[in-house]
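Summary for the steering committee. One of the milestones for this cycle was to obtain a three-dimensional model of the protein with zinc ion bound, which we needed before selecting residues for the alanine scan. The sequence and ligand used are listed below.
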Amino acid sequence: MSKFDKLIGRDKVPIYIKMKPKPSASHLINYQSEIDYKYYICDHCGSKIKILQKKHEMSGGVVCLPATLTGNKDLTLALCNKCLNPALKEFEGVK
Ligand SMILES: [Zn+2]
């Protein structure tokens, strides 16, 4: 069993949305809330990974692990750069 077993079968990596805070003087009826940024949650450590235009500036991203590695199905994970190796070790330990 690995901590990622429950993620096998998940359709896709969820994307979360952080909204900009509403101005405090929000008696403006037509105030439109705006998206501040979107982010993933790292499946290994739970950190936020902001989705940026410049992918190389992101602290992580989405990786697809092949079934040959997971021993089950292909598995798509959101991982920080620093969590990639520890996450891969999870699977190596299972086999
Ligand atoms: Zn992480």
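Key point for the committee: DSSP finds two helices and five strands in the chain.
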